[in-house]
Amino acid sequence: MKRPAQLLLTAVAFDVYWTLVVVFRERGIFLWLALAILACLMLPHTQRRDALLLALAGSALDTAWVLTGLIKFNSTALLPLWMVALWLMFATVWSRLTSMTTLSRWLLVLSGTVGGPVAYAIGEYLGAITFLEPTAIVLSWMVCGWLVLMLLFHVLMGRQQCAR
To answer: How many other CB atoms sit within 10 Å of the CB of residue 53?
Structure first.
């Protein structure tokens, strides 16, 4: 399969996964976790490490937003397992996509910085989370958080590629 088709298929598959996880949340938790873990295990070792670090950082960012009163997951957990599965799958797909694409790192950082908060806005619309502050404030914080997350990820990946 040619690289553009592979990238498109990967992105579409993640969007389907994201939609199913956000809509069904706890009702499919074992499936969501199993799929995310399996996808992560299929990555090459260095990409797997990058994905795990990104998933950990993203989960920490969500936890910080919950603890500061910015958002609340419509769940009994501080950070529900379906969200951890979503972070692991996102990090796995992002690691894979960024290693396959010829797009500039700045374009990738920009797309993550915009796309992440948009996904949260859709998640709120679908009832998965609640914004506890006005939407503009929540999304502003999320844009900042995602920008830092994407910059750190791409700086880390860039250094690793230079070391190889």
So the answer is: 16
Residue range 61-98, pLDDT digits in tens: 999 999 999 999 988 889 999 999 999 999 999 998 88
Q: Which amino acid is at 26?
A: E
**Residue carrying the six token digits 């609640």:** 130
> Cα 41 vs. chain centroid, distance in angstroms?
17
Helix (H, G, I), strand (E, B) or coil at 102: coil
CA angle 137, 142, 147 (to 5 degrees): 135
Amino acid at 43: L
pTM as predicted: 0.91
Using an 8 Å Cβ cutoff, are 20 and 33 in contact? no
Contact of 89 with 14, CB cutoff 8 Å: yes
- E-assigned strands of 58-108? 71-73
Identify which of 162, 31, 57 has the alpha carbon closest to the alpha carbon of residue 112. Answer: 57
CA distance 79 to 31: 18
